[in-house]
Design goal:
The chain has two helices and 14 strands. By secondary structure, it is mainly beta. The protein has a single domain, classed as monomeric porin ompg (Porin), CATH 2.40.160.40. The termini are far apart.
Amino acid sequence: MRKIFLLISFILPFSAFAQEDLMELVSDSNEVFVRTATFKATRIINGHSVETVGKNNMDFIISHRFDRINRGFEEFFGLDAATNRLGLEYGINDRFMIGLGRSSFQKTFDYFAKYKLLRQTSGAVNTPVSVTLFGGYAIRTQKTTPQLSGSDRSSYTAQFLIARKFSEAFSLQLSPTLIHRNRADIFTDNKTVIATGIGGRMKLTKRTSLNGEYNYVLPNQIDDNYKNNLSFSFDLETGGHVFQLLFTNSFGMTERQFITETDGSWGSGDIHFGFNISRTFSFEKKNRLKP
């Protein structure tokens, strides 16, 4: 009897340790890891990224595009003329956000919503990509001759944003896009245009990165004088700010403008220097300890 008691006393601790290790293994296998910061802002450069503003957070965005560098010294290489956009974006929850903006170019107002359908995860649930749905509306309010109706000034955009963060240093996004213009500026252009965008981010240091973006419009939809948008940027993150210094062949900053109506060519030196500044404000209530 004493031998049996000693044997049980010897085995029991190891059994408990084994059970504890098994529980930890099960716990680890059920854990889901969400990939975050695929991009550092809601924009790659001109176009939207898969990122959304967090719940009860608001982003204030200042975007600026100078005139073409090839204007020469007389126009101070484009710095004498510029267009800008002021935007506000608010997170309803961690997946759904809304936003609006006003551009001085063609005096355009834009409104949009984004919903993060899928988040890239690993572990118990393996989702290889993040997917965000984007829907936008823009209206140009600049006076024209002849005077156009509000409907003729309007355009609509739908995008399916698909991105993967391959590593801590590299992210890539595809952006299938459909744009409908109630009235095209050139009557031979399609009112509904199909395009696809590709964008990427290469992290340099903890707070800096290089971004690139290209939007390809499928053939035989718009006039040959229009070019595909190509942009590059250097990003710097400092606390709640993201500073982005960029070069692009697009002057406008709404989807209609930079995807379907870019008339600048990199080969001809029609390059605009510009910047985006994003500042995040949090309205999340912090829990306070009761005395």
